[in-house]
Amino acid sequence: MAAVSDFGRLNGADRIPRPFLIGVAGGTASGKSTVCSKITQLLGQSEVETRQRQVVIVSQDSFYRELNAEEKEMAAAGTFNFDHPSAFDLQQMIQTMTLVAEGKTVEIPNYDYILNARLPSKQKVYPADVVLFEGILVFYFPELRDMFHMKLFVDTDPDTRLSRRVLRDTKERGRDLDQILNMYTSHVKPAFEEFCLPTKKYADVIIPRGADNTVAIDLIVQHIQELLRPSNRDTTRRLRHHSDSGSFASRPH
Ligand SMILES: Nc1ncnc2c1ncn2[C@@H]1O[C@H](COP(=O)(O)OP(=O)(O)O)[C@@H](O)[C@H]1O
Ligand SMILES: O=c1ccn([C@@H]2O[C@H](COP(=O)(O)O)[C@@H](O)[C@H]2O)c(=O)[nH]1
Question: Which of 164, 175, 200, 212 gets mutated to test ligand 1 (max ligand atoms within 8 A of its CB)?
């Protein structure tokens, strides 16, 4: 596993004014959140107090839009399509991520999968050096996709994903087996094939087997550490500038 190296020195005046944005896409239960947590942990950030974190994770699920009464009934019955791009509040997602990219503090909704709705409480995301934005459709919307300096696609076998989704959704998301399987065959799988899988081509790095792939995760962590090392700051700024103008894609080398 990668050593933490001098990543921890990035703070105060040394902090990069605009964060390095990493998009993490992949099918449901592919391990996107787990991969992000591992990256954060390897960068020595899991024990750091929220406000001081140099690496933060934002979930696209926070931007599921509010549903109308009819849609709420469908969601409760397990027939609403949460895997279609129209299930997200694109405008809010872009506005918020634009502010994050500018290094601003933002408030994002807390989403509840049991209520299929946002909670009244919000979570604050403080400026950080690295922001990981994970979700099934983070590469689908061009305005969002173009914001990322690095794009990762977590590629896990569909049978493994379905079995993990069954276990997770029965335990954590208040669903029964019938509903999970019906939702999967009617919406989740077709939408994955139509909207998520075709975005794999935009990835700079594809991570087969998700969080089990310690070699890939280790290489990604080393790449981030290298880009953010104080001695490489000028190069990183230049790369980010080119990336902003669309001429640079961060690839492992
Ligand atoms: N490598 C793994 N081995 C076993 N279980 C895993 C692994 N990666 C993820 N999981 C489990 O699978 C479920 C989905 O993982 P998660 O990271 O939340 O996926 P995603 O964010 O892509 O939906 C979670 O319950 C998680 O603990
Ligand atoms: O209220 C909801 C909202 C979404 N879902 C499902 O969640 C996944 C996306 O989250 P992952 O963590 O990437 O699995 C998506 O496939 C939706 O079907 C839900 O079940 N309920």
Answer: 164
* CB of residue 61 inside a 6 A radius of ligand 2: yes
The string of pLDDT tens digits covering residues 177-214 is 999 999 999 999 999 999 999 999 999 999 999 999 99
Which of these, 185, 212, 156, 168, lies nearest to 61 by C-alpha position?
168
The verdict on 12 and 72 lying in the same domain is: no
Whether this model's pTM surpasses 0.80 = yes
**Domain ranges, residue 182:** 1-56+150-234
Phi, psi of 29 (to 5 degrees): 55, 25
46 plus 89 within the same structural domain: no
Report, in angstroms and rounded to the nearest whole number, the Rg of the chain calculated over CA atoms. Answer: 18
Ligand 2 binding pocket includes 111 (Cβ within 6 Å):
no
Residue 93 · residue 63 · CB < 8 Å: yes
- Ligand 2 contact via 113 beta carbon (within 6 Å): yes
ipTM: 0.99
Separation of CA 24 and ligand 1 centre (Å)? 14
* pLDDT score for 3: 33
Q: Are residues 37 and 68 in the same domain?
A: no
Q: Three-class SS of residue 79?
A: coil
| 83-141: pLDDT as tens digits | 999 999 999 999 999 999 999 999 999 999 999 999 999 999 999 999 999 999 999 99
Tokens 């997602």 map to which residue?
Answer: 93
Beta bridge partners of 20: 130
- The answer to the question of residue 250 being in a domain is no
Contact 180, 189 (CB under 8 A): no
